[in-house]
């Protein structure tokens, strides 16, 4: 796969259904660059980095995590630079690492066929914790490219971080608008809360982790339907 360019400063490495790989996005500032999510495994992260190198882009200085789920975080040990996550994400990763240490990797592989496909060939499962942990909001200045990280209530998990590239007018939602794994049920009240959060953010484009870019209005319309309104 090759990078897709979204704006002057933003690219994304496309999602893949077979191995449940999310979009891995890249924001280039004048001083630093930021990746959105770390990847499903070391192999996924390295494929993303090869695509960046082929496009003549420097590897990210920072990686921001949208939520703790494995397809977004289990490549963290292979990232370039530092990883940033909210306090709940940090706690969930720590707890899941302890679970794997107690029960073995089969407890992880048994969760979903996509995981087994991602880790075919005896790839190691390595869970690391973020280097930087925040609570509430965090503002980054990448160099003429401000980016805001915002904890948000959402139906997918209770540790969702939205990433707003302010001057590019792009909002990365991770899986925030999705249902709860593995039933994919959505709480209408949480859909309404996420809708209100998104509505208050000044963006034109919304990018979910397992979908193509859509307009903010399309995103709001989907959340409105999920909220039963």
Give an overview of the whole structure.
With 229 residues, this protein is of the alpha/beta class. It has a single domain (4-226), classed as Metallo-beta-lactamase, Chain A, CATH 3.60.15. 29% of the residues lie in helices and 23% in strands. The chain contains seven helices and 13 strands. A seven-stranded mixed sheet has the order 1-2-3-4-5-6-7. Strands 8-9-10-11-12-13 form a six-stranded mixed sheet. Strand 5 (62-64), helix 2 (70-73) and strand 6 form a beta-alpha-beta unit. Helix 6 runs antiparallel to helix 7 (216-226). The longest helix is centred in the middle third of the chain and has 17 residues, at 87-103.
Short structural description:
This protein is an alpha/beta fold. The protein has a single domain, classed as Ribonuclease Z/Hydroxyacylglutathione hydrolase-like (Metallo-beta-lactamase, Chain A, 4-Layer Sandwich).
Please give a handful of descriptors for the protein shown.
229 residues; alpha/beta; Metallo-beta-lactamase, Chain A; 7 helices; 29% helix; 23% strand
Any chance you could write out the topology, listing elements then pairs?
Blueprint (H helix, E strand, L loop, with lengths): L3 E2 L4 E4 L10 E5 L4 E4 L5 H13 L7 E3 L5 H4 L8 E5 H17 L2 H4 L3 H6 L13 E3 L2 E5 L4 E6 L9 E5 L4 E5 L13 H12 L5 E4 L5 E2 H11 L3
Parallel strand pairs: 4-5, 5-6, 6-7, 11-12
Antiparallel strand pairs: 1-2, 2-3, 3-4, 8-9, 9-10, 10-11, 12-13
Helix pairs in contact: 6-7
Query: Strand count, sense and closure of the main sheet?
Result: 7 strands, mixed
Regions with little confidence, pLDDT below 50 for 5+ residues: none
Report the radius of gyration as a whole number of Å: 17 Å
**Share in β-strands:** 15-25%
Structural class: alpha/beta
At the first level of CATH, the class is: Alpha Beta
Strand order of the largest sheet: 1-2-3-4-5-6-7
Count of extended strands: 13
CATH architecture designation: 4-Layer Sandwich
The CATH superfamily bears the name: Ribonuclease Z/Hydroxyacylglutathione hydrolase-like
Number of domains: 1
**Oligomeric grouping of the chains:** single chain
Overall, the morphology is: globular
């Amino acid at each position: 796969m090759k990078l897709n360019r979204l704006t002057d400063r933003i690219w994304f490495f496309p999602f893949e259904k077979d191995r449940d790989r999310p979009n891995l996005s890249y924001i280039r500032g004048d001083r630093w660059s930021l990746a959105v999510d770390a990847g499903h495994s070391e192999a996924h992260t390295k494929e993303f980095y090869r695509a960046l190198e082929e496009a003549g882009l420097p590897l990210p200085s920072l990686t921001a995590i949208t939520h703790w789920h494995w397809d977004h975080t289990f490549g963290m040990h292979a990232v370039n630079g530092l990883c940033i996550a909210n306090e709940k994400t940090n706690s969930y990763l720590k707890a899941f690492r302890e679970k794997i240490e107690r029960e073995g990797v089969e407890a992880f592989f048994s969760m979903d066929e996509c995981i087994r496909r991602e880790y075919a060939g005896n790839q190691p499962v390595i869970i690391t914790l973020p280097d930087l942990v925040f609570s509430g909001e965090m503002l980054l200045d990448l160099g003429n490219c401000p980016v805001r990280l915002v904890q948000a209530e959402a139906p997918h998990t209770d540790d969702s971080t939205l990433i707003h590239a302010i001057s590019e007018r792009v909002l990365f939602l991770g899986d925030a608008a999705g249902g709860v794994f593995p039933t994919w049920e959505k709480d209408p009240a949480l859909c309404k809360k996420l809708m209100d959060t998104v509505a208050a953010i000044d963006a034109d484009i919304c990018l979910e982790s397992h979908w193509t870019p859509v307009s903010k209005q399309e995103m709001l319309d989907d959340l409105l339907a999920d909220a039963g309104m």
